[in-house]
Amino acid sequence: MFIDASVLSAMMTDEEEARAFAIRIQPATARMTSPLAAANAAILVSDALGLSPTEAGEAVRTFLQLMNIQLLAVPPRAAVLATEAYEHYGQGGHTARLSLDDCMTYACARYYRQPLLSNSDRFKQTDIELA
């Protein structure tokens, strides 16, 4: 399962969906995210909890360890997959209106052949397998 920043930050800030995400993550034997998602989550957590970005980044790293979520490198092939995702689902021509961050998340999930766990409804309008 590839976990995006919206899920990480929702769980870390105890948003309404946090417990539902924890239940969905629990049975997954493969749990992963990217450095981009971790950095994005740190920024979201920093804003939500009033922490410095550095403090929030440390909290995200600790959370990933506690939840047994691997931080995997963004593979070079993700650039091609993200560009293709933007062409099909990007902000200009598709109702999903995926941003660059969304396209990179899509690309990593696609590259690692993992279902995507996200708090965003945008991915429901794409062909990515959802967790």
UniProtKB/TrEMBL annotation:
<dbReference type="InterPro" id="IPR029060">
    <property type="entry name" value="PIN-like_dom_sf"/>
</dbReference>
<dbReference type="InterPro" id="IPR002716">
    <property type="entry name" value="PIN_dom"/>
</dbReference>
<protein>
    <submittedName>
        <fullName>Ribonuclease VapC</fullName>
        <ecNumber>3.1.-.-</ecNumber>
    </submittedName>
</protein>
<dbReference type="Pfam" id="PF01850">
    <property type="entry name" value="PIN"/>
</dbReference>
<keyword id="KW-0378">Hydrolase</keyword>
<feature type="domain" description="PIN">
    <location>
        <begin position="1"/>
        <end position="127"/>
    </location>
</feature>
<dbReference type="GO" id="GO:0016787">
    <property type="term" value="F:hydrolase activity"/>
</dbReference>
